[in-house]
Design goal:
With about 375 residues, this protein is mostly helical. The protein has helices at about 5-35, 40-50, 55-80, 85-105, 115-140, 145-170, 200-220, 220-230, 235-240, 245-270, 285-295, 300-320, 330, 335-345; strands at about 110, 115, 185, 200. A hairpin with a 2-residue loop joins strand 1 and strand 2 (about 115). It is found in: Cell membrane.
């Protein structure tokens, strides 16, 4: 692909994202105008929800599993491995975190760690194990990455509720009696609206650190250059003596590690695993794929897209609690998903890494 073509694609992508940003600003301005002019209308209620500190707090919490899965997806796909099994990694880590905490007992500590944090790391470990199996199947045995990713999702989707049924007698686990809680930073937490950033669960702080850290690793370190080269031109990386397979293993394992954090935080933030239907994960792994595609494989952009969806999810939850309006809850619940469809229509021009999904044997072209 020529430099001119790449530049044209980037300009087009930027135009679409600027158009979406302008549209979001226009929608907010519209709501603000009618909310202020008609203080007794639904617009006023909607404006109150949008500028509410509790909405920001909910959006940050809901963004955690999507953001971590999106960051993981970026590392895997940038390395050349398409991991659509992010949903499965979230499910298995969410379940493992809760069941481990329950088995240990909420009041027990191991090596100084409370049971809930042992469960948290156990969930991350379970996700790592699944991602390692996925990596071996795709890299060592050259299986189709899409099929293997779907297998990870389907196995986790069946295994977690089954294990819960065996242990608890139902697909939903009991509440473990504790959660990750909230970390409050004095003074800063008293700031109106933005104080929610300083009065949040530990996973939110992890997310706010992980996003810029991921950007720095990908763009400012030798490891990040190897990851990008593995997905764009593995032959060139191989030529300079870097083992492409090892880089790809690292990218996939990072996707498992980050997704594990998101899944563990999701279930332990509630203190329970819910296995009904699509489980409590409920498509967040697939939305994460949309998020990093829309963010054009940029951790900052992926976080923005994740936060957008989470914010809409928080708004629709609050809207269902507003009395006096004959708007069906089922219609309100579609708001975030309609947004995802719109975003999917816009990400069609996102340029995926050239070698993503292609198998490569280190040294195969240099014999």
């Amino acid at each position: 692909m020529s430099t001119t073509t790449i530049d044209q694609l980037r300009d087009t992508e930027l135009s679409y994202r600027m158009l979406l940003a302008a549209g979001a600003i226009a929608v907010f301005s519209f709501i603000a105008f009618f909310g202020l002019v008609f203080p007794e209308s639904i617009w006023a209620d909607l404006l109150g929800i949008l500028i509410s500190r509790s909405t920001l707090s909910s959006a940050l919490r809901l963004a955690v599993p999507i953001t971590f899965a999106a960051l993981g997806g970026i590392f895997a796909e940038k390395a050349g491995v398409i991991n659509i099994g992010l949903e499965g990694l979230l499910i298995i880590s969410a379940f493992t975190a809760v069941i481990t905490t329950a088995v240990i007992g909420p009041g027990v500590t191991i090596l100084g760690l409370p049971a809930i944090w042992v469960g948290f790391f156990a969930g991350v470990l379970a996700s790592l194990v699944f991602s390692l199996i996925f990596a071996v199947v795709c890299i060592r045995f050259k299986a189709d990455q899409i099929i293997a990713g779907l297998a990870v999702w389907l196995i986790a989707l069946g295994l977690a509720p089954f294990a819960a049924t065996v242990y608890y007698g139902g697909v939903n686990t009991d509440n473990v009696g504790t959660t990750l809680g909230t970390w409050t930073i004095p003074v800063l937490s008293d700031i109106p609206f933005f104080g929610a950033l300083f009065d949040a669960g530990p996973a939110v702080y992890m997310m706010l650190v992980a996003v810029p850290a991921s950007w720095f690793v990908l763009n400012r370190t030798a490891f990040g250059r190897h990851i990008r080269a593995s997905g764009e031109n593995p032959k060139a990386l191989d030529t300079v003596g870097v083992d492409v397979s090892r880089v790809r293993y690292a990218g996939v394992l990072l996707s498992g590690f980050l997704s594990g954090i998101g899944g563990s935080a999701l279930s332990l933030g509630l203190g329970q695993f819910i296995g009904n239907n699509q489980t409590m994960v409920n498509g967040k792994g697939f939305i994460a794929i949309v998020a990093y595609l829309f963010g054009n494989y940029n951790p900052l952009g992926a976080f923005g897209a994740s936060f957008l969806f989470a914010g809409l999810e928080a708004v629709q939850i609050r809207l269902q609690q507003v009395p006096g309006y004959a708007i069906p809850d089922s219609l309100i619940q579609t708001i975030p998903y309609i947004t995802v469809i719109v975003i999917l229509a816009l990400v069609g021009r996102t340029r995926i890494p050239q070698a993503a999904g292609e198998h490569y044997d280190t040294g195969e072209d240099n014999r």
